[in-house]
């Protein structure tokens, strides 16, 4: 068995597709209308359609999908440039800051309230410790 990818539910597939494509710069590999797969393996799915597929019923409540219980993690070679491009268009959790393990990251919410972290690339050292590239 191997893990493939997370698939966050989104309310408006076109709005979310544009956000991830235009704001985060992800390239679309396949667009099936209610399901979009990006080249990185990341995917989004229109929530009402996926709820019907999985549970055989449409949404029973109009609850938000992002509930502060999942963090979508991305890396970018130029964290400061990514921050300058993204920050004016999102609800920030915090600006670029250095974490206890030495990595610089910033966090924000996507259109559905999913928390996103953008960090500079990391690699693990021989002991499993994170090391800045």
TrEMBL record:
Pfam families: Glyoxalase_2. Residues 2-121 form the VOC domain. It comes from the Bacteria. This is Glyoxalase family protein. It comes from Neorhizobium galegae bv. officinalis.
